[in-house]
Amino acid sequence: MPDKFLKPYDPSATESRIYAEWEGSGLFNPDECVKQGVTRADATPYSIVLPPPNVTGRLHMGHALMLAIEDIFIRFKRMRGFRTLWIPGTDHAAIATQSVVEKQIKKEENKSRHDIGREELLRRIEAFAAGSHDTIVNQLKTMGASLDWSREAFTLDETRSRAVRKVFKDMYDAGLIYRGHRIVNWDPKGQTTISDDELIYQEEKTTFYYLTYGPFTIGTARPETKFGDKYVVMHPDDPRYRQFTHGQTFEAEWINGPITATVIKDESIDMGFGTGVMTITPWHSHEDFDIAERHELDKEQIIDWYGKLLPIAGEFAGMKIAEARPLIIEKLRAKHLVAKEEPYTHNIATAERTGGIVEPQIKLQWFVDVNRKIEGRGKTLKEIMIEPVRFGDIRILPEYLEKTYFHWIQNLRDWCISRQIWYGHRIPVWYRGEEIVVGDAPASDGWIQDEDTLDTWFSSGLWTFSTLGWPEETSDFLTYHPTDLLETGYDILFFWIARMILLTGFTLGTIPFKTVYLHGLVRDAQGRKISKSLGNNLDPLDIAAKFGADAARMALVVGNTPGTDMRISEDKVKGYKHFANKLWNIARFILEQANASGRVIDTKTWSSGPERDQLPAREHELLDQSDALIKEVTTDIEEFRVYLAAEKLYHYTWHELADKILEESKPIFAGADETAKASRAALLLTLLTRTVKMLHPFMPFVTEEIWQSLPTKDAPYLMVAEWPA
RNA sequence: GGGCGCUUAGCUCAGUUGGUAGAGCAACCCGUUUACACCGGGUAGGUCAGAGGUUCGAGUCCUCUAGCGCCCACCA
């Protein structure tokens, strides 16, 4: 009986020691498992890539949940004899990281990125990212994640950069990446373009104005964009405007004097909205841009890159939108051009990272064309995204999110992949006069590289295969791709999952993963979202220090179905700390009995087979019960019901093994029948061995610590012991 | 405006293919008997949001209603 069992279980003293032992054994690496003979060389591979955390700071409980679930599958499969690989890594998270560092510099030195320059800014971001990286790695290890650190990757390192350049070039050559003047979401605060998915819509109460425009009345919530308007658009079938013909011009008194306007008839106009007629501002509206393209109309910029009015606004030039709007209305009123005003509520787009009010602008940008038929493939990128999910090659859990996925793809527009920030993969395009080189840098001098960087999701979209060494045909790539499981929060289904399916489908003609497991958001005890301003964040490191990583993992996993948000509180974690201690004491009691002096324990007779039929009825029954649990738990995990498996194990361990089986055994051990005692001790030892094995994926530390003291131990670490059957 | 989800014991949530309602926490009573007070034994508590339907049988499937929440969207 080792002395350690004389005290209550102390996770803080145990967990870091055990992790170091595991790491030292090298057994997180599947090659090492084969070399050490714990995994067969011809075993079926099983792989997961860790969704790379952003190097913007530290992990939160959502990450802890992700780690717990993934580690459960990884440890389960490893114990089941698979050649199991879990690859760690981090994401440079372009805009997010740069904006964190920029804010810091602004606060501490009152300087902008332009004050310190591209090179110096990048140096500072890299230093910051390195610090975050180290914190994150420490957190990952604290949670017990059995990641193969020898394969760690970073979205911005050289291997991953090579993959990015290659995919960019392949897509460019296929005509799927193009550069063009299009309406983009411009963030005047962050001074960059952002994608549709980086927008947050916020409700705004404002005024809707009806303005007199020549013979028409037009409606608008944005009078400040109207300076350059010289087209009125109406539906060709609108009877109210039958007397006007397409192309007809007329004179009108407008904000800064008389103008000549042209009538345009276009079917996109909704006759039922407002007056059924509108003027257009093609430079600052998606819809207006499309109309202007269809009819080859002039486009003029009204608002500059900092959100201020340009000289076309006359006396209002140089003003910010917010200050100009009331002045413009005042002037229009004075000219009797305001026909009517009414209160109006609509959603305005803001930038997720900076909070800036997004202004649609026409800009020369790089795009991925999602609607173009790919030569030789006969399908579009949209179809490449839809098919594997529709045909069941990729399974999304919970299933209902498949519908959301399809719905999103239907509404998908071309993906703007260029960003006007400095941290990230520089667009791999070089110019020299009229010449252009795409892909790897040209060998000769005199070329100028594109100033922009790529959307961060472009590189993370390659993650399942770039981490495996692609574009080289490495044995890792050939062995472990497609990966088996991708587990992440449902909030990045579109950002990331969809893009991985797109980029993998195009590049490799295959799928990136077979199953997508989407967990819900982790909220605080009151159900509120975790946010800095509320200060309701629980740091996984603090929680692990206080209650143990095992307890944190169980608290996050039990009863937590995919796709459903959950609440976490210290009290909940505390409950599972008690459970870890319970298990510890169960082990102590059983080992005491098994190690009692002179007692000979032979657990072999407890395995299945003819000996089992000789057992007393009660022993037989308890083994049957344990067998049944093994079956259920195994099936539950295989069917991704880890939330159920965890609950069943908890219940069995505490309320069957401890409360019933141990209690009914006490009189036996108090009796005089040595044969019965030895027999019962062997039974308990068998049940304990099976239980710690099954609990190991969920609570790796305490189970490993117990395992190291078990006489039934048949592998150097529980981590690589055989799953019970 | 379009799509999706939720509503089960005081609280937080399970309930896998339809077969007489479950867990944890909280509450109440009892208990320190050879692991564990980070404990044990016991008690109480639900017309499964509401209405209708399919079925021998529905928390589970279908329709509608109400409340809550999330996602998407260029209505000028």
Q: Short description, anyone?
A:
The protein has 725 residues and is an alpha/beta fold. Helices cover 42% and strands 18% of the residues. Among the domains are: 1-43 and 542-725, Orthogonal Bundle (Isoleucyl-tRNA Synthetase, Domain 1), CATH 1.10.730; 192-360, Valyl/Leucyl/Isoleucyl-tRNA synthetase, editing domain (Isoleucyl-tRNA Synthetase, domain 2, Alpha-Beta Complex), CATH 3.90.740.
Provide keyphrases for this structure:
725 residues, alpha/beta, Isoleucyl-tRNA Synthetase, Domain 1, Isoleucyl-tRNA Synthetase, domain 2, four-stranded antiparallel β-sheet, four-stranded mixed β-sheet, 23 helices, elongated, RNA-binding
Characterization of this structure:
With about 725 residues, this protein is of the alpha/beta class. Among the domains are: about 1-45 and about 540-725, Isoleucyl-tRNA Synthetase, Domain 1, CATH 1.10.730.10; about 190-360, Isoleucyl-tRNA Synthetase, domain 2 (Alpha-Beta Complex), CATH 3.90.740.10. It is about 40% helix and about 20% strand. The protein has a four-stranded antiparallel sheet. Strands 10-11-9-12 form a four-stranded mixed sheet, with no helix packed on it. Helix 20 (about 615-640) packs parallel to helix 22 (about 675-695). The radius of gyration is 32 Å and the shape is elongated. The structure holds one RNA strand of 76 nucleotides.
